[in-house]
Amino acid sequence: MQPGGGLVTPGRCFKPATNPPRNNPAEPKVTSAKPFDVLCIGNAIVDVFARCDDDFLVDNGIVKGAMNLIDAERAELLYSRMGPAIEASGGSAGNTAAGIASFGAAAAFFGKVADDHLGKVYAHDIRAQGVAFDTQPLNGQTPTARSMIFVTPDGERSMNTYLGACVELGPDDVERDKAERSKLVYFEGYLWDPPLAKDAIRLTAQHAHAAGGEVSMTLSDPFCVDRYRDEFLELMRSGTVDIVFANESELKSLYQTASFETALEAIGKDCKLAAVTRSEHGSVIVRGAETIAIDAVEINELVDTTGAGDLYAAGFLYGYVTGRDLVDCGRLGSLAAGIVIQQIGPRPQKNLREAAQQSGLL
């Protein structure tokens, strides 16, 4: 299992699902009380992609398949050593918000950028994808965050992230009306690193729950889990978080076990609902003692695993907030993950709603 790996079976053609189309409206509807389906909270990061071989990772001390936090000096050094690069707006929860909007749902985003060139690029991109983004930019010396992402020939990505303005997201950036008028709030575990962000997330969760909404999170990375294991478990067991997304490595890390079955049983007791991705083995959805296995989709070519987990969450949450059963939620997640890993970049270049309709999922 690779951190953040998608739900794929490389080397075979993608096959549309055979189940019949659902009798759903052509476009999803939201009530006046809940104009947003999902509010995402995360690091607003501009991704810089470059291809490299494994020797480059070793020579530069980069941990393969993980997200490594770096300082400004390290960011400049790695950027100077990169080959030809592609820049694109990213960040885990921002990718999920873009995916949800591509399915046709109403998405909003909280994330901090600086009032600089990359900040303007990020704001333009996420709004152009149909996501409501109104967080005030940071004025000062700290620049917008960026992540150097090195993609090896096996499609694995190794991220080296300078958080920059992201660390300044705090309670003052919480838009109470969006929190209260969203069906569900989703945040990334990566955002648990900056202290101010913890307060912002807890405040948003309080507003959401008070208004009858739910809260979900992604564990993000095994190294993130190692840093905040006790706090993540407290979020789940206290009811602050209702729904958890993880991959197999993150789940095992959370419960400090080598047994996937033991970890599944544990998370079934600790939160209302969990979805665990297993790369080519698909995913497992856990609700109490109930487990539902979802098959992987088949693809033509594995290009880049960046954003696979983010887009799985997008598909799953789209299904969840539009009232579909858990099997369909998982299938929508697998579909979105399978699409994004066949491209460079973490945000869907293909309309996900149209893809789901063609696959018979909508």
In short:
With 362 residues, this protein is of the alpha/beta class. It has helices at residues 54-59, 72-81, 92-102, 117-128, 176-180, 195-210, 222-237, 248-255, 260-270, 308-321, 326-340, 352-358, and strands at 8-9, 36-41, 45-51, 67-69, 86-90, 107-110, 131-133, 145-151, 157-162, 182-188, 214-218, 243-247, 273-277, 283-287, 290-294, 297-298.
CATH architecture descriptor text of the domain at 36-44 and 91-137 and 168-359: 3-Layer(aba) Sandwich
Question: Number of helical segments?
Answer: 12
CATH fold assignment of the domain at 36-44 and 91-137 and 168-359 = UDP-N-acetylmuramoyl-L-alanine:D-glutamate ligase
What's the SSE pattern? Answer: EEEHEHEHEHEEEHEHEHEHHEEEEHHH
* pLDDT averaged over residues: 89
Helix content: 25-40%
Region (Disordered): 1-29
Domain Carbohydrate kinase PfkB: 89-347
Family: Belongs to the carbohydrate kinase PfkB family.
Keywords: Kinase, Transferase
Task: List the SSEs and their pairings.
Blueprint lengths: L7 E2 L26 E6 L3 E7 L2 H6 L7 E3 L2 H10 L4 E5 L1 H11 L4 E4 L6 H12 L2 E3 L11 E7 L5 E6 L13 H5 L1 E7 L6 H16 L3 E5 L3 H16 L5 E5 H8 L4 H11 L2 E5 L5 E5 L2 E5 L2 E2 L9 H14 L4 H15 L11 H7 L4
Organism: Nitratireductor arenosus
GO molecular function: kinase activity
Family: Belongs to the carbohydrate kinase PfkB family.
Task: Describe, in plain words, how this protein is organized in 3D.
This protein is of the alpha/beta class. It has a domain at 36-44 and 91-137 and 168-359: 3-Layer(aba) Sandwich (UDP-N-acetylmuramoyl-L-alanine:D-glutamate ligase), CATH 3.40.1190. The protein contains 12 helices and 16 strands. Helix 8 (248-255) packs across helix 9 (260-270) and helix 10 packs antiparallel against helix 11. The longest helix is centred in the middle third of the chain and has 16 residues, at 195-210. Mean pLDDT is 89; it is low at 1-32.
